[in-house]
Structure formats: C-alpha cells, structure tokens
Amino acid sequence: MKPAPFRYVAARALDEALQLKAAHGEEARFLAGGQSLVPTMNFRLSQPALLIDINPLTELAGMRKCGLDRVRIGALTRYRELERDPAVAPILPLVDEALPHIAHPQIRNRTTIGGNLAHADPASEMPAIILALGGRLRAQSVKGERWIAAADFFTGALSTALEPDEMLVEVELPTAPSRSGACFMEMARRHGDFALVGVACMLRLDEDGRCGEARIGLCNAGDTPMFAAQASQSLVGGKLGAAEIGTAAALVQRDIDPPGNIHASKEFQRHLAGVLTARALAAANERARRAH
Amino acid sequence: MHTETHAITVTVNGTPYRRSVEARTLLSDFLRHDLLLAGTHIGCEHGVCGACTVIFDGLAVRSCLMFAAQADGHSIVTVEGLAADRHHLHPLQQAMRDCHGLQCGYCTPGILMTMKAFLDETPAPDEARIREALSGNLCRCTGYQHIVDAVKLAADRMRG
C-alpha cells in the first residue's frame, strides 16, 4: 500500500512540464489532483518513473467565456471551484447537477476536471457529460497544440487519444442554448460511489415545441463513456411524448454494452440505463419547457 | 531506482518544520512517522475511508492521496491542532464526547477535521448538508446518528 519509488518534479512552468513529458513519455505521469492516480500508485497498479506535479501551474485553472455560446475550463480547475461558482449552473446545468455525485467533498477539493477526463474511467461522470455536450479538448506538447473532439478522445477503458508527450490543458463546452433543458441522473449503491449507470442528457426545443436537438451520454455503460447517437437522433423533430422517450430509452438499451460487475449484472445495468434515460429525458424536457 | 529526497518546509498546526522526504512518502506517513503526529489515522490508503483527512490550506483533503513533497510551502492542520490547549477540547471534540459520537474512535480524527472545515464554511448547516459533508468518512461503529447530533450541537455552540 505504498507507492514504488519515483522521481518527483514540481513544475514551475508549463514549458518545463511539457519538456519533461516529451523526454520521458509514458514513463512519466502528470500529477494534478491525484485522486485517481495516487490510489493506483498506492496499489502499485501504476508505477511511473517520474511524477510531474502540475499543481503549481495555476494558469491552467479557471473558467472563462469564449464567444457567446462556449466556455473554456482550464485542466487544473478543481471541482470544488466549479461547485461554488454561481456562474456554472445557468450555463452548464449538466455539470452543475452532476458535481455532487462525483465522489465526496474531500475528493472534490482536490480533483481537477483535466485529471478526471484524462483518467478516462468509463464509470466516471464528467467524460459522459462532455460527450453529451459535444465538447472538445485542447492538448498541448512541446510541438504545439491541437483540439480533440470529445467523441474522439476516449479510446478505451482508461485510454485516451492523448499522445505520450501531450498534456490535456483545457476543455471547451457549449453553454446551454435558450429553450433547452438538461438532466443528469445516476444510480449508485451509496451516495458518492461510482455509478452503476449514469445518464447525462440535453434537449433543445424548437419554437413549435418539437425537439430541435437531443444529446444523451452514459457512464458505466461500456468500455468507454458513451454517446448514444441513435437514441439521440431518434428524438430530433419529434414531440417528446412518452412514446418518443420510450423509443429513445429502448435504443439506449439496445446500443450499450455494459460491463457488469459484482454490484450489478449486465442485464441490471441495461435495465437501469433504460429507466434512467427515460426519467432524465422527461426531466430535461420539463426543464426546457419551463425555460421557455 | 535511486532514492531521491526533497527538502520541504511545511507548517503543521502553526509550527514550521523543515524535513527531507522521499518523493514517494505519502503526506499521511510523513505526519505520523516524520512529525510523530499519530492522531491522523490511516485506514484504507486509497481515498475511500476518510480516516486520514487533514486540513490543507484550509480545505479538508485525504492525506493518503498526497505526497509529502507536495506540502512544501503549504499549511496543514491535523487533529492535534484542533484544541486551543491541552485542557480544553475544541467545541467539535466536546460535542462528539457529549453526544457519544464515537465508539472505537478510529475514524474520529478524520471526521473532526472534515467537520472543522465544513463548519468553517457552513456555520449553520441543516441535517441534510451535514450528512452530505460526512459522506466521505466511514464509521463502522456509530451508525452516524450521534455524529450528526454532535455536529449540530457543535455548530450551535460555535455560533454562540
């Protein structure tokens, strides 16, 4: 229960951190909040040779508006800060609703959004949310920077499209459009546990009350956080009544491949995904109508 | 693998300490073994139980999920730093005693530090907020009810 020996460097500048990562590649890991990495090191499931502590790089923290309809959140922004920022709920209602479900207060005091996303746990909430919102992520290395669409970022369980020399430095999310509603719901054995299944959805209504846009993301429903493309598409143009919502929930159940674990069988996870999808869509629809 | 050490300066319970630590030394082990502040308990060492909670720059954190090297230049309060002096318990400690908020006591230091940070931020919490704040600390003896009672009592007393 103690980490294997490693080298530790507290980065004084982003350039220094990126140069170290370029030099050491997969042997090195960035240390942000450490709330997922350090447990794996304590269990010796991961034994990085070098830890590059990026906590001193405060320029990577904070949220800022980007144009009229997007917001950028620095990778080192801690969930504690997002939870207490009154600007979050109106523009990122999905994030606001999901935050209290993410582990416990002491963990959220340290957890960073960048670390949580780069860890890419399929059971984790935020990856499903940025998929549902259709966000994108900025990766930086000594060679330059690139944007990666959320849909291309999660490549497998605990695996991302980040190259060994890259750091995730920023996340960009669309803010809630008018006439929209969002809902995050999950089922966990105890509050703060990883979800057995979680659903994040966003609906935007057209002026005639029909569905203009629908996006459904799921956590712990497969090897990666999932965007339910067909279920989302099935709602567009429709009235969002019980029948339409039921169809979307059935498509989610058809399209997911839940892993099953000792707490929930595949069948139970599939059942839950359908129930939660239907409930979350109904709630999001109600909120969208009220917002109107 | 060579063993490298880092010189750190850290303030714990108001006292500055200078020590040399191995990179892999967990903050929890540093507090217990290097500073001999064994009031910080170690339960699970993977961030689940909350027994090792300390206050790091004003915020409750798991000391088993940080390295001592990360504490360089920072300020920590442990359970040893709660009471003003050895003759007077902190209001939270007194309320835990009055309400029978502990039995075996193993989880108590972590709960006290979590609740200290919580009440600093939320001086007049309702029961739901107390339970949410307590959700990251496991207690296998009490069933939590008396802990919740103690936090309510402490909050009342601390507000005067």
By secondary-structure content and strand pairing, the structural class of chain A works out as: alpha+beta
Number of strands of chain A: 14
Radius of gyration of chain B: 16 Å
Gyration radius of chain A, in Å:
19 Å
Largest sheet of chain A: 5 strands, antiparallel
Q: What is the CATH topology descriptor of the largest domain in chain B?
A: Ubiquitin-like (UB roll)
Give the spatial strand order of the biggest sheet of chain A: 4-5-10-6-7
H/E series of chain A, N to C?
EHEHEEEHHHHHHEEHEEEEEEEHHH
- Total E-strand runs of chain B: 5
- Average pLDDT metric of chain B: 96
In one word, what is the shape of chain A?
globular
- Oligomeric state of this protein: heterodimer
Please identify, by name, the CATH architecture of the largest domain in chain B: Roll
- In DSSP terms (H or I, runs of 4 or more residues), the helix count of chain B works out at 5
Overall structural class of chain B, as computed from helix and strand content, comes to: alpha+beta
- The CATH class of the largest domain in chain A, by name, is Alpha Beta
Q: How do the helices and strands follow one another from N- to C-terminus of chain B?
A: EEHEEEHHHH
What does this structure look like?
The complex is a heterodimer of chains A (292) and B (160). With 292 residues, chain A is of the alpha+beta class. Chain A has 3 domains: 7-53, Uridine Diphospho-n-acetylenolpyruvylglucosamine Reductase, domain 2; 58-174, Uridine Diphospho-n-acetylenolpyruvylglucosamine Reductase, domain 3 (2-Layer Sandwich); 180-291, Enolase-like, domain 1. Chain A has helices spanning 14-24, 37-42, 79-84, 88-91, 93-98, 105-108, 113-119, 125-133, 150-153, 229-235, 242-255, 266-291, and strands at residues 7-10, 28-31, 50-53, 63-66, 70-74, 136-141, 144-149, 154-156, 159-160, 167-174, 180-187, 197-205, 211-219, 226-227. Chain A has a 5-stranded antiparallel β-sheet with strand order 4-5-10-6-7. Chain A has a 4-stranded antiparallel β-sheet with strand order 11-12-13-14, sandwiched between helices. The mean pLDDT of chain A is 96. With 160 residues, chain B is an alpha+beta fold. Chain B folds into 2 domains: 5-81, Beta-grasp domain (Ubiquitin-like (UB roll), Roll), CATH 3.10.20.30; 91-159, [2Fe-2S]-binding domain (DNA polymerase, domain 1, Orthogonal Bundle), CATH 1.10.150. Helices cover 33% and strands 17% of the residues of chain B. Chain B has helices at 27-34, 91-98, 108-121, 127-134, 145-159; strands spanning 5-12, 15-22, 53-56, 59-62, 75-77. Chain B has a 5-stranded mixed β-sheet, with helices on both faces. The longest helix of chain B has 15 residues, at 145-159. The interface between A and B is medium-sized, with 32 and 32 residues.
